[in-house]
Amino acid sequence: MKPINNSTMDNDELIALVEKMPAFPNSVQRIIQLTSDINSSGKEIVEVIESDPVMTVKILKVINSPFYGLPKKINSIQRAVVYIGMNTIKNLALSVASIGVLNPKNKAGFNTHAFLLHSLTTAAICKKLAERQGVPQADCSDFFVAGLLHDFGKVVFAEFKAEDFRKALQKSAAEQISLHRCESECIGMDHSQAGALLAEKWAFDQLLVDAINHHHASNPHHLLTQCLFAANQISKKMEFGHSGNSIVEEFPPAVDSLFGMGLNELIESWEDLTTLRSEALSFISGT
Amino acid sequence: MKVTFRGVRGSIPTPGPSTLKYGGNTTCIEIRTAVDDLIILDAGTGIHALAQRLDPKLPIQAHIFITHTHWDHIQGLPFFTPIFRPGNQIDIYGGLDPVTGEGIERCMKVQLQYSFFPIREAELKTKLSYHTLLPGKTVTAGTASITPTILNHPVLNFGYRVECDGHSLFFTGDYEPPYNIYQPDEPDHNEYQSHVDAKLAEVAAAMANVDALIVDSSYTDQEYLSKRGWGHGTYRSALTMAAQANAAKLFFTHHEPGRTDQELDRLFQQLREENHDAPFQIEMAREGVEYTF
Ligand SMILES: [Zn+2]
Ligand SMILES: [Zn+2]
Description:
Helix content of chain A is 64%, strand content 0%. By secondary structure, chain A is mainly alpha-helical. In chain A, helix 2 packs antiparallel against helix 3 (42-50), helix 2 crosses helix 6 (86-97) and helix 9 (152-160) crosses helix 10 (162-175). Helix content of chain B is 22%, strand content 24%. Chain B starts with a strand and ends with a strand. In chain B, 47% of the residues are buried. The chains are: A mainly alpha, B alpha/beta. One zinc ion (ZN) binds at residues 68, 70, 153, 174, 231 of chain B.
């Protein structure tokens, strides 16, 4: 992966900055509520963490660090809870919450609420696609997490490369070119590369790193990447939230043959697709 | 392998007439190998009594393994008197706390401050060496080898498997076996259960076939009803563990501070009657009692 081409920030600096990156306002608020209530349920804590890409990233980063030398990488928050204990996960979430909240009015003009809805619906669709393909239940959460984190690079850009990212967003909208192409031009790296670079640095599961890296690739290989590709396009086509990129890409041959149909057909065959959006919305707007 | 309980009490020391038999000191286990290597599991207040028995004229080499940094497991550390004499070698082992990102050195750094203790760490005569352990990675201490496994508790807690002289022991530290946070009719139930089952299998493998399994058995089933999620096990969960691990002898420890000698005797008798045909022996851990394996 090539480094971000900017004289003022190198990759290590970016990684250090992300440590201090706050999470989304609603989950921060709910974590603070839940951790001040001795009777709060573990389920709710898991639910909040799983609905916030920043919290999820930070917890997976700790649990996958070499200090816990796990035989198998942990992609799911549920498994992290069982492995390291509910209280530790709760305290980790609280320490993320104590950093503050992500500013919804970033200088890049990037709508973080719409972004979150896009990420969450992509996650839910990706998981459903895995179930549809007969992936074992315990592995389906890997698909959810891939959907949740695939665009993580964009929040990082909005937070730390705001000027350049704003240009990329504008160019993509004005010229109807895919955002990742414009990012490469304006930032020297696109969000899938940035996300993959971070995920790799944090020792995430290689399949997850690859899925983030190749979610815009013209010929995605692994099942995880293929489902993610499809989920991302479905979420965009349905206009569930917005990730700063309006271009919907057709399924590449591998994705097409995996589902035995193209994007539009897949959407049409899916009866309760819009309920995924309302479920995701209820997570973000707090219940 | 010689094993002596130096502290068997949970939470807070409980000296007094009602705890004379089982003892009132908090968690500490002394292990001696055939060549007299000294391995200590946890540094509750029981470690002070252990220190009193060491010959002050001889240089001491001690390997102290901390399961977790709750007070009742580290409080005796500043009172382990060999740290005040030059020429001793004290090695302290433990995990990296996921929340603070700090290693086991923190438990001395925090305790040895003027507000809490009259001596600072820098003033100690003996050099302490700290070792951060990785779960599943075996380390050697003298002729013993020790392997940590993460066990569920409100802070990072290592259970330790100790092997020496062809014998083995496993101590859980404080441990509440994980349970499903979802109801059977909730969609996440099955997936969560698969993670729980995988973790329980990992724990059973870590304890497999030990001569001595020493388990946090703080609660009765009745008490546990109102203490779920507090991070401690029950007599029943200990029995299940011993059966799954195929242990030869099970020790119940981390006795509740309010538990009197009389109550422990009564509970023990009841447990013995209920489990007379169990394929392993059971014992209540008792301060000062030594076992040889
Ligand atoms: Zn304890
Ligand atoms: Zn404890």
